[in-house]
Amino acid sequence: MMSLPESSSRPYEECGVFGVWGVPDAAALTALGLHALQHRGQESAGIVSFDGNAFHQHKGLGLVGEVFADGDVMSALPGHVAIGHNRYATAGGTHVRNVQPLYADYAFGGLAVAHNGNLTNAKTLRQALVRRGCIFHSAMDTEVFVHLIAISLYNTVIDRLMDAAKQVKGAYSLITLTPDDGMIGLRDPLGVRPLVLGRMPGYEEDNGGWVLASETCALDIIDAEYVRDVEPGEIVVINADGVKSLKPFGDKGRRFCVFEYIYFARPDSILEGKSVYDARTQIGRELARESAIDADVIVPVPDSGVPSALGYAAESGIPFELGIIRNHYVGRTFIEPTDQIRNLGVRMKHSANRSVLEGRRVVLVDDSIVRGTTSRKIVDMVRAAGAKEVHMRITSPPTKHSCFYGIDTPEESKLLAAQHSLEDMRKAIGVDTLAFVSFDGLYQALGYSDRNDGGRNYCDACFSGEYPITLVDKMGKLVQ
Ligand code: SF4
């Protein structure tokens, strides 16, 4: 896992994965799917297709629309099956060799792998594999998977994949492409990272049209219908025989990442049967009930704060206004900027709408406070636009711990909530009042009675410090 740039103040999703089987122009549909998943990673994109005889690949740094803009590039990706990947990475990790999908030739022919998440024993396994003579070409956890599959002694690709999956620990969703077994999807045993199964109508006769994607918004863009979420620990094998489901891990429960609902996923996605938009709206309502304040306007910090602010406004009866305007045209140049430009980053992305803010008591609704630097800049900007009072309401509990499951967060010493009391945070951000949604309130918004009830179904380790998957590398343990 990469670390955030020093001054970055938001957690970033590491990746989005997409695959489609049994349709003409599979690569073009994959490019559209990746475009819908662009919010999960903006640094690089890649597609591998298979035409029945050979694999074809194209990968590059940049947004999907930049990497796959050229018609010649798309026509060099023929085939009825393709998988793709979006990646977020920092300056140090932005190398073409780290762009997925990863493709390798091994005993069973070719194998392409697109992976979202993080293995918590990747370092340990990697050391063991290197001692056995494996040569690594990238810094990605995905390559550990590929080597484990390549050296496995089992006789089929599926058995080798299961063998590899049983050796790794972590939170991941994986899509692989093989010449003989088709497209294979795999979700980690606790289902921390998302993966959904969909189908494009019109290809039923040939058993085609199957789609795997990180989120349902990637199904919508290609007119595919949502079939179901891939279950935690489930392997789905998709080929001319249809979809075969394998559950090599048995039932270990489920611990879906609760931060997907709060921040990462696109609001029009449905994950684990719940609308992300509805979840955010309900969290906003809960926050209004828990920490009401007299104010004139409810203002979201765009974009993820918008549905929650609508919920907060509806519950409180205070008008919702767009007091902060987001510039959607901040190009890639500014995603990995110089320090000087980075310091101006908030103003490049957000502008204060003076007509809404001047002389008003403002409630700002945001999803999280990580380092606090972005929050401080936004509050300063809102005050400079004439706000009389600024109150901050956060739709997650305080982020006190790092994520080791594929979401790129700073180390604990850099997290504002890990180091400061609520009152010190309030002062550091410069607001009149500051409140976070409670754990119970968060789970009530998701339809449970409290955290005891709901928390069993989710990972909330970055708030609670209760990590559901052993952090093997961090603990320095050896995996047998
Ligand atoms: S630690 Fe936080 S961000 Fe990471 S998987 Fe768990 S809930 Fe999601």
Molecular structure report:
It is an enzyme of class 2 (transferase). This is Amidophosphoribosyltransferase. It catalyses: 5-phospho-beta-D-ribosylamine + L-glutamate + diphosphate = 5-phospho-alpha-D-ribose 1-diphosphate + L-glutamine + H2O. Catalyzes the formation of phosphoribosylamine from phosphoribosylpyrophosphate (PRPP) and glutamine. The protein has about 475 residues and is of the alpha+beta class. The chain has two domains: about 10-255, Glutamine Phosphoribosylpyrophosphate, subunit 1, domain 1 (4-Layer Sandwich), CATH 3.60.20; about 270-465, 3-Layer(aba) Sandwich (Rossmann fold), CATH 3.40.50.2020. The strands form seven sheets. The protein has a seven-stranded antiparallel beta sheet. The protein has a six-stranded antiparallel beta sheet with strand order 6-7-8-9-13-14, with helices on one face. Helix 9 (about 275-290) packs across helix 10 (about 305-315) and helix 9 packs across helix 17 (about 440-445). Bound molecules: iron/sulfur cluster (SF4). Iron/sulfur cluster (SF4) binds near residues 257, 259, 461 and 462.
Bound molecules: iron/sulfur cluster
Number of domains: 2
Morphology call:
globular
Distance between the termini: 22 Å
Low-confidence stretches: 1-8
CATH homologous superfamily identity of the largest domain: Aminohydrolase, N-terminal nucleophile (Ntn) domain
> What is the CATH class name of the largest domain?
Alpha Beta
Q: What is the beta-strand fraction?
A: 25-35%
Placed side by side, the strands forming the largest sheet appear as 4-3-5-2-11-10-12
CATH architecture designation of the largest domain: 4-Layer Sandwich
* Overall mean pLDDT: 90
Query: Under CATH, the topology of the largest domain is which?
Result: Glutamine Phosphoribosylpyrophosphate, subunit 1, domain 1
Instruction: Supply the helix-strand structural class.
Output: alpha+beta
Number of strands: 25
Largest sheet: 7 strands, antiparallel
Count of runs of 4 or more consecutive helical residues? 20
Active site: 15 (nucleophile)
Cofactor: Mg(2+); [4Fe-4S] cluster
Keywords: 4Fe-4S, Glutamine amidotransferase, Glycosyltransferase, Iron, Iron-sulfur, Magnesium, Metal-binding, Purine biosynthesis, Transferase
Catalytic activity: 5-phospho-beta-D-ribosylamine + L-glutamate + diphosphate = 5-phospho-alpha-D-ribose 1-diphosphate + L-glutamine + H2O
